[in-house]
Amino acid sequence: MMQLLTLLGAMGMFLYGMNLMSSGLQKAAGDRLRNFLAAMTSNSFKRVTTGVGITAVIQSSSATTVMVVGFVNAGLLTLTQAVGVIMGANIGTTITAWMVALLGFKADIAVLAVPLMAVGFVLSMAKKERYKHISELVIGFSLLFLGLSLMKNSVPDLRQTPEVLSFIQQWCDYGFGSVLIFLLFGTVLTLVLQSSSATMALTLIMLSVGWIPFEMAAAMVLGENIGTTITANIAASVGNPNARRAALAHTFFNIFGVIWALAIFRPFLMFVGMVISWMGYPNPMEIDFAAGITEGSVESTASLYGVSMLHTLFNLINTLILVWFTPLIVKVVTAAIKSKPKDEDEVKVKLKFIEAGPLGTPELAITQAKNEIIHFGQISRNGLGYIKSAVHAKDEEEFEFFRKKLVKYEEIADRIEYEIAQFLNAVSQHDISEETQARIKSMYKIIGEMESLGDSGEAISRILSRRNIHGKSFTERNLEKIDTMIELLDQAYEVMIENLTKKRGEEISLRRAVDCEIEINNTRTTLREEEILQIEQGVTSYANSVYYIDVISEIERMGDYIINVSEAL
Fold first, then answer.
1. At what angle do helices 265-278 and 241-263 cross, to 10 degrees?
2. Half-sphere exposure of 282 (CA within 13 A, CB side)
3. Which of 13, 140, 251, 438 falls 20 to 30 Å from 177 in CA-CA distance?
4. Quick check: 552 and 488 in contact, CB under 8 A?
5. Which CATH superfamily is domain 353-568 in?
6. Torsion sign, CA atoms 455, 459, 465, 468
């Protein structure tokens, strides 16, 4: 029982170390990863390379795939681009297997891991934030290999206690049925642990201490490739159709690979054995596992390298086969998951980019929020057209149509602000960098100002309703001047959205935004003074003019909200 509890605790340390290492790398290289992903998806080779590179950095194909699903949901990647990146992620995850096989078993890396923790602690005391992120990476790396070492030491020795896992050895006696049993075992274990890397580490341990032969370890590896697709499908389940299609493409890709690998299982393993022989090690297919192997022996090393090589060759061959059929895969998953037609208002009330919730990589999730805020700004600008239409409505029926539109847009603004805030709150619950915290704080301010723009649109509709109830109307001159204010406001919107779309490091056009705000303020003041003069001269009555003055004042207030967005940026 104590051995079992130690094994579970060691597994927890391994997984926590991997998460900590991944988190530190994301925070140290968040913007670089974002830029890398954006720049490296123009062709199939670059997409695959991108998937390999990012997965090698964050040490988790599941995190990469969830990130890709989120980016498809956010419109940052097309479905075709996503399929290529996912293929690369499958290759990138093999690096973890080689790292564990080369470092975790060949030498006692745990001896080095403890001193590395001291290095990590010293780095964590540094004032520079980047060094603190690197300290997480170092400590995570140390915990990963300490956990691996503890897992190895807590596994029962079958030569001393053969009854402990005799049932596993019995599973090996059913021929090809045993291959299917261990494939299912690898799938279920990956589902439970939510990490193919952890399952791979357990597979290598079970192989190194002689619990299972090479063939059954190979079957477990194939099962892990199926199990790892579930994480992305869970993340995509609440996403848009393209996000679900990207997750389904990942499942299709891996299941296709497992099918051809099972169809030529023995010849494939023999080929892997030949490759290991060319490296100067015994062929793992010819090792007598029934006689037992000693941990650290040349036979054990050959078996570990054999499993890692199988994992690598499986994903390389699968990618080389399917990369040519990417358009066909896109067509298949698009046909399998169809988009539901929605009316205009239903589309607008829904978030466009962050329906799938926070990504597995919180440092990268901020890009989703940025794109949703740009979308929010565009929706808000569309509402300006309804304000103009409501002001110019010629009869009560036409006015009522546009009044309801403005009320609807105010409700949409409230809903979008709330959902973006919920998303930002969920991202901020993760351990994120100070720079990302500052960006989230700015985003809270921005969405608050945009929600106020929706309130102003609805406020103008109420002013116009009161005007109509009291039987008043605007003169042609009033309408012309209101149009002038709306045009100035539209120019301010244009500058605001241009600033929102600026990439990290690009200069915000604050001067232009301020110039727009000053012009709106000056025009409002001039128009109000002109109208008051008209009242004093008896050209118009106060009862007629009050609604006109209220409308141009509310439009000026919208200009204040718009300049606040650029200042927050």
1. 80
2. 16
3. 251
4. no
5. Phosphate transport system protein phou homolog 2; domain 2 (1.20.58.220)
6. negative
Structure tokens at 331: 């067509």
CA distance 428 to 437: 7
DSSP annotation of 488 reads H
Instruction: Give dist(CA 43, CA 40) in Å, integer.
Output: 8
Long-range interactions of 369-374: CB distance < 8 A, separation 24+: 369/420, 369/423, 369/424, 369/427, 369/440, 369/443, 370/443, 370/500, 371/74, 371/75, 371/76, 372/74, 372/416, 372/420, 372/423, 373/420, 373/443, 373/446, 373/447, 373/450, 373/500, 374/497, 374/500, 374/501
pLDDT in tens, 261-306: 999 998 999 998 898 889 888 888 877 665 556 666 777 778 888 8
Assess whether pLDDT exceeds 60 at residue 38. no
| CA dihedral sign, ordered 506, 510, 513, 515 | negative
Check if the beta carbon of residue 208 is closer than 8 Å to that of residue 200.
no
What digits encode the pLDDT tens for the residues 214-245? 888 899 889 988 887 876 676 666 566 777 88
Maximum Cα interatomic distance, the chain, rounded to a whole number of Å: 111
Contact 518, 443 (CB under 8 A): no
d(CA 492, CA 516): 6
Amino acid at the residue 424: L
Phi, psi of 77 (to 5 degrees): -130, 145
- Rounded Cα gap, residues 55 and 365, in angstroms: 16
Which has the higher per-residue pLDDT, 95 or 195?
95
Chain mean position to CA 396: 48
Mean pLDDT score across all residues of the chain: 80
Q: Which residue in 274, 311, 354 sits closest to 61, CA to CA? A: 311
Q: Which two tokens stand for residue 177?
A: 């049925």
- What residue has token string 């539109």? 405
Task: Spell out the domain ranges in the chain.
Answer: 2-336, 353-568
Q: In Å, how far from its chain's centre is CA 318?
A: 25
Cα–Cα distance, 139 to 149 (Å, whole number) = 15
Amino acid at position 502, single letter = K
pLDDT of 285 reads: 81
For the entire predicted model, the pTM comes to 0.58
- pLDDT of 358: 45
CA pair distance 428, 407, nearest whole angstrom: 32
